[in-house]
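Encode chain A's predicted structure.
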Amino acid sequence: MSTILTTVEGYEDKVLDFVKNAKAPVVEYVGKGVELVGDRSLAYPESLPTPIEVVKSQTAFVKKLIDANTAIVTAVLETIAPVAGFKATKASKPAVKAA
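Encoded structure for chain A:
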C-alpha cells in the first residue's frame, strides 16, 4: 500500500473515532432534553414507520448501493489496468471486447 493511502486511512480512522466518541455525549445531552420535556410527548402516527425503522432500512440500502458501486468501479479499473499502468488485484481481462 502506498504511503499516501496509509496517511489517508489514518485520517479516516481519526474521523471514525471522533464519530464513535461523540455518541455518549450526544445521547447524554439529548436525554437531558427528554427530561425537560417530560411526559409532554407528541402522538406519533402509527401508520408511519418509526424513525429507527427508517434509519435501519436506509442504512441497509446504502450499504448495498456502496457494494454495487464498488463492484462496478473495481471491474472497470481491473479492465483498464493493463493500459493505465497499474497492477490489477486479479487477472485483468477486458470486460467487453471492442467491435
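The radius of gyration is 23 Å.
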